[in-house]
Amino acid sequence: VNAEIIAIGSELLTPFRSDTNSLYLTDRLNTLGIEVEFKTVVGDVREHLVNAARIAFGRADVILFMGGLGPTEDDLTRECVAEALGIALRRDSGLVGELYKWFAARRYKMPESNLKQADVLIGAVPLPNANGTAPGQWLETEWAGRKLVIMLLPGPPREVKPIFDEQCMPRLKALGAGEQIATRVLKVAMMGESACDEIASKVYKKYRDIQTTILAGAGEIQLHLRGRGKTLEAAKAKVDKLADELEDALEPHLFSTAGESLEQIVGYYLDMRGQTIATAESCTGGLVAERLTSVAGSSRYFLGGAIVYSNELKSQFADVPESLVKTHGAVSSEVAKAMAEGIRKRCGAQLGVGVTGIAGPGGGTDEKPVGLVFHALADGKRTEVVQRNFPGDRERVRWYASQQALDMVRRKLSS
Amino acid sequence: VNAEIIAIGSELLTPFRSDTNSLYLTDRLNTLGIEVEFKTVVGDVREHLVNAARIAFGRADVILFMGGLGPTEDDLTRECVAEALGIALRRDSGLVGELYKWFAARRYKMPESNLKQADVLIGAVPLPNANGTAPGQWLETEWAGRKLVIMLLPGPPREVKPIFDEQCMPRLKALGAGEQIATRVLKVAMMGESACDEIASKVYKKYRDIQTTILAGAGEIQLHLRGRGKTLEAAKAKVDKLADELEDALEPHLFSTAGESLEQIVGYYLDMRGQTIATAESCTGGLVAERLTSVAGSSRYFLGGAIVYSNELKSQFADVPESLVKTHGAVSSEVAKAMAEGIRKRCGAQLGVGVTGIAGPGGGTDEKPVGLVFHALADGKRTEVVQRNFPGDRERVRWYASQQALDMVRRKLSS
C-alpha cells in the first residue's frame, strides 16, 4: 500500500514556509506498513489542484490532502477533489449546526462564507475538528477500477495531528491487512560517522529485513531502525533484537535507545545518582547551562553557573588564579581545569564543568586555532580534561563543545 | 514564467528528512520574477521519476531536478530525465577527465561506477561542481511545442547553492525578459500579531502591487515584502518606499529592516555606543547570554554573567540580599531588579540584565503561575522592570523571556 501527501497553500511555495506536517504523517503511516511514495506541494489555484488530485489518484492508494479547508475564497480543496473525482458535494446539516454552535460559544456572528465548511464529498464521513472550524473528511471510493482511500485534513499542525491520530489511524488500521512496522531510534555522541558505521554495519548487515538509516549531525549520530512483521509485537521483537546488539557494539558512545536528547539523559543520571552540577563557560557562552536547564525539573540537580568571557570574571566567579591565565593563556587545559574546580566549590555542587575555547570566526592563532576547545569535569577528587579541535563555524564549534561537555558528564555518571 | 522543483531521494520520503533546498532556490527564482508553482518529492524509483518528470514538463516552464546525480545504482536522475524527454545521453570525455583528476588528487582509485556521472543529456551544458563529483546540467529544449528550461542539480546544500548561484542564475537572467522582483524583511519584537497587523495593514493596503506576508513567532513578527518592476532598481524603489512607511508606523516595536536577528541588533547598538553588558538569569538558564554570545565579536561588549537557579547563588553571584528573596520570593520584581543591579556591579559592566520567572511545567501557583517572568535592566542610575505572563510550554516561555530581555536592551540603546 502506498500513499501520496498533497500539501495545499500558496504560502508553502514561498521561500518562508515549508510543509512539516508530512514528516509526522509519514511516521504514523509507516507504523501501519504504508509507505509514502510521493509528496506534492501545490498552491491555491483551482486548475493546479484538480490536476494534482487526478495525478495522485492514478499513482497512489492512500491520498492525504492537507490544507485549503478554511472558509475563504482561496480554500478550494473540497470542490477541487470533488471535481477531480467527478462527484458532488452535499451540505451536511449536522456540520452546519456545529459551525453555528462554535461561533455562538465565542459570541461571534458566523460569516455566511463559513457555511462552505459544512460541504462534504458524497460518500465521505466528516471528521470532527476539536481545535478549529474546518472538519476533515474520510472517503473510501473506486477510481479507474482501483480502491482509493482519500482524506481531507486541515493544515495547522495542532488541528491535523489529533484528527489523524484519533480518527484516521483507527480507520486505516481496520482497513489494512497489511504488515505492521516497528521503529527505534538510537543516538551516539562524539563519534565520527564512518567510525560509527564501521562498527554498526557489521551488526545491522546481518539483519537484512530491517532498514537502518544513519543520520549524522554535529557531535551526534542517530540510527533509525525500521522492521516489519505480521503483528506489531513481531515487528518490535525483530527491531529490539537489532537495537540490543547495536547497543552492545556501540558502547560507550551510545547514550540513548529511545530517542532522548543528551541533556535529558544527563538529567536522568544526575537525578538517579542524587548529584548536583554547576557550569563555568567561556566560548559556549551559556549554551551548556541552557541545554541542561531546558529539561523540566532540572532545578533538582542544576544549581547554577557562570559565563566568564573576561579573564577578570574567570577569577571572580570561578576562582581561576590570575597567574594561571598569564602563564597558560585563557584557552588552556589548566584554565579549563581551574574553571571546573572553582565553579564546583563556589556553587557547592558535586560536579563542576569548565569550558574554554575559540569559537571564531576571530581570535584564532597558529598555535591556538579557531575550533580549539578544552572541556573539564571536576568531582572533587580528580578533574578530567578533554582537548578537541572542532571543525565548522562559530555556531557549530559551540554546539560541538556543549555536546562534548555534556557527554563527559554522561560517561562519568553511567560508569 | 513558472517553475517546478523536484526533489529526488527515498530518504526525503522518510519521517526524518525533508527538502530544505527548495526554500533557497525559491528565493533566488523569485528575484527573477519566476514563481514556483509546484514542488514534488519522489523516491529513487525509475518509473516514479520518469512519470514525475513528464508531469512537470506538461505544467511548468522551468524545471529543477535536485538529487540523484551520484554514482550509485540508486542515482537515476540523468537516465530518467532522458527517458522522459525521449532523448539520449552522451558520455562527456571532458567530464570523464575531470572525474579521474578529482580522484587522483585525493589518491583514491576511481570506481568504474563513477563514470556514469560523466553522462550528459544531448544538447545540455554540464555545470561544474566545485564541491563534489556530480556535475549539474543545463538544458534548453522544446517539449510538446513549449520551450522548457531543465536543470539537473546535486542534492547536498553546499553543492547545489554555488552551482545555482554562479551558473544557473546568470543563464536564467540572460533568458528572462521577465519582471524583476525585490524583497525586504522587517522584524518586530514583543507585539501581538493582530495588533501588528492592525497598524501595518493600514499602510500596506495602500500598496496593492506589493505582496506583504506576515509570519508570527514567539515574541517576534516578520513582515516579508515583495514587489515587481521592469528593473531591479524600480522594484527595489517600490518596496523600499513601503518599508520606510512601515518602519515609521511600527516604531518602537520594529527592530530590523534588513533581516538581522534581535541579538545582532543589540550587538550593533552596544558596539556603537561603546557599552558593555552582563546578565543574571534564573528561568532562562543561560539563554539570554547564549543568544548574546552567538554573535561573532560579542566579546567586545559581553563581559559575562551568572545563572542563578538556587537562592544561595542569587546572593553569591549577583549580591541579591537574602532578605529580599524571603520577603518577596525568588520570582518577584524586587529580586529581578536586585539581580540586574548586582550583576552589573559585579562584572563592572555599564548595563546589567536580570531575569527571574517560572518556566514550568512545574513550580506554578495561583499567585505566581507558570509563564510569569520579571525582566530587569539596570544602567547604574535607574532600573527598569517589566512583568509578563507568557503563554506556552517551557521552551516557549524561556524564548519569550529572552526576547523580552533583549528587546529592553535594544529599546534603551536606540532611544
Architecture blueprint of SSEs:
Two copies of one chain form a homodimer.
Chain A: E1 2-8, H1 21-31, E2 35-42, H2 46-59, E3 62-66, H3 77-85, E4 89-91, H4 93-105, E5 119-121, E6 125-127, E7 136-143, E8 146-153, H5 157-175, E9 180-189, H6 193-204, E10 210-217, E11 220-229, H7 232-250, E12 254-256, H8 262-273, E13 277-281, H9 287-293, E14 302-308, H10 311-318, H11 322-328, H12 333-347, E15 351-357, E16 372-378, E17 383-389, H13 394-414
Helix pairs in contact in A: 1-5, 2-3, 6-7, 8-13, 9-13
What does this structure look like?
Two copies of one chain form a homodimer. Chain A contains 13 helices and 17 strands. Chain A is α/β, with parallel strands linked by helices and 415 residues long. Chain A has a six-stranded mixed beta sheet, sandwiched between helices. In chain A, strands 14-13-15-16-17 form a five-stranded mixed beta sheet, with helices on both faces. The first copy, chain A, has a four-stranded antiparallel beta sheet with strand order 10-11-9-12. In chain A, a hairpin with an 8-residue loop joins strand 6 (125-127) and strand 7. At the A-B interface, helix 1, strand 2, helix 2, helix 9 and strand 14 of A face helix 1, strand 2, helix 2, helix 9 and strand 14 of B. Strand 14 (302-308) of chain A pairs antiparallel with strand 14 of chain B.
Cα-based radius of gyration of chain A, to the nearest Å: 28 Å
Q: How many E strands of chain A?
A: 17
Q: What structural class should be given to the helix and strand makeup of chain A?
A: alpha/beta
Helix content of chain A: 40-55%
Mean pLDDT of chain A: 94
Outline of chain A: elongated
Secondary-structure element series of chain A: EHEHEHEHEEEEHEHEEHEHEHEHHHEEEH
Beta-strand share of residues of chain A = 25-35%
Major beta sheet, strand line-up of chain A: 2-1-3-8-7-6
What does the oligomeric state look like here? homodimer
